[in-house]
Amino acid sequence: MERGARDLADERERVLNAIAEARRWLVGARRVVALTGAGISAESGVPTFRGPQGLWREFKPEELATPEAFAQNPGLVWEWYDWRRALIAGCVPNAGHLALARYEKVRVVTQNVDGLHARAGSAEVLEIHGSIWRLVCTECGAAREDLTVPLKPLPPRCGCGGMERPGVVWFGEALRRGVWAESERLVRSAEVLLVVGTSGAVYPAAGLAHTARVAGAKVIEINLERTALSREVDLSLLGPSGEILPQLV
Ligand code: BJW
Ligand code: ZN
Question: Which of 97, 117, 129, 210 is catalytic?
Fold first, then answer.
């Protein structure tokens, strides 16, 4: 066999062995949690945040996903969210979302705001960064779900006349306490944590991998590449989550 072909065959065998090992852990576990990030929705056509295509016009997501950006230019921030809402409305869950939805043992804790886990059929998804379909009044705090795309008027208004904001968690904002507490509780009692399609760059979400490990769980990462969390996990499965998850669960 030629060198290149042999390397490829070796790599394939390594991945297959790793998947077999991960399956053994999963078969023996009763409580499994999946912590998901933008990468799980990439194969549905939803852009990720970091990386080459993670830009909108000349703005970085980090510059728009902040309370300061919204205070300074709510129209611009809303344009970005409205654009993303329309894009996501045209996407469907992929094989990765569907594999998790079919897997009864797993609870999903997601950083994603796209709602694709619920659309795939996962129950009781914990959306720790909120939902792009939720609107929250900046005056009276009333929250509602609105699936309309595009939104009219933009920015949208509450019945009280106040401007609404996207029901998501921006940088510097606290996560909703109940949702976060429940996520930490689940992760602490998990026997296996699947960390899927996240760069592990954003806290406190990324800290859940550490929390699980300290509590004794096996942590399995599924990502196209190595991440900030790779050195902390028990097993890294490199590849698209839409291909790996259906082989695992
Ligand atoms: C694939 C794939 C395929 C692609 N298959 N894989 C501790 C240390 C340092 C800083 C902090 C800290 N604690 C808090 C902070 C500050 C800050 C923070 O983390 N900053 C860091 C950037 C340094 N955190 C916060 O501010 C948080 N709040 C907080 O801590 O509150 C307490 C507090 C209050 C007041 C003062 C101080 C503290 C809130 C964070 C909110 C994050 N919000 C966003 C936007 C949500 C709304 C929206 O969508 O618009 O959440 S930012 C953005 O990043 C979004 C995501 O959920 C989040 C994570 O991104 P994710 O999912 O990992 O995506 P990517 O793009 O980064 O990665 C995709 C991955 O997929 C890549 O690895 C690819 O390889 C992979 N991939 N295709 C498998 N097919
Ligand atoms: Zn209101």
Answer: 129
Tens digits of residue pLDDT in 195-216: 999 999 999 999 999 999 999 9
- Residue 224 clears pLDDT 80, i.e. is over it: yes
Is residue 180 within 8 Å of residue 186, measured between CB atoms?
Answer: no
Is 197 touching ligand 1 by the criterion CB < 6 Å? yes
Residues 112 and 198: their CA atoms lie apart, in Å, by 10
pTM of the model: 0.96
Instruction: Give the number of other Cβ atoms within 10 Å of residue 99's Cβ.
Output: 21
Over residues 168-196, the pLDDT tens digits come to 999 999 999 999 999 999 999 999 999 99
Q: Please give the distance, rounded to the nearest whole angstrom, from the Cα atom of residue 128 to the centre of ligand 2.
A: 23
Atom of ligand 1 nearest to the CA of 129: 46
**210 an active-site residue?**
no
| Distance in Å, CA 199 to ligand 1 centroid | 8
Domains of the chain: 27-46+93-129+175-249 (3.40.50.1220), 52-90+135-168 (3.30.1600.10)
Helices 3-28 and 241-248 meet at what angle, rounded to 10? 50
At position 211, the amino acid (one-letter code) is: T
Nearest CA to ligand 1 atom 2: 39
Q: What is the pLDDT of residue 121?
A: 98
Task: Collect all residues with Cβ–Cβ distance below 8 Å to 167 and sequence separation of at least 6.
Answer: 130, 131, 132, 133, 134, 135, 136, 143
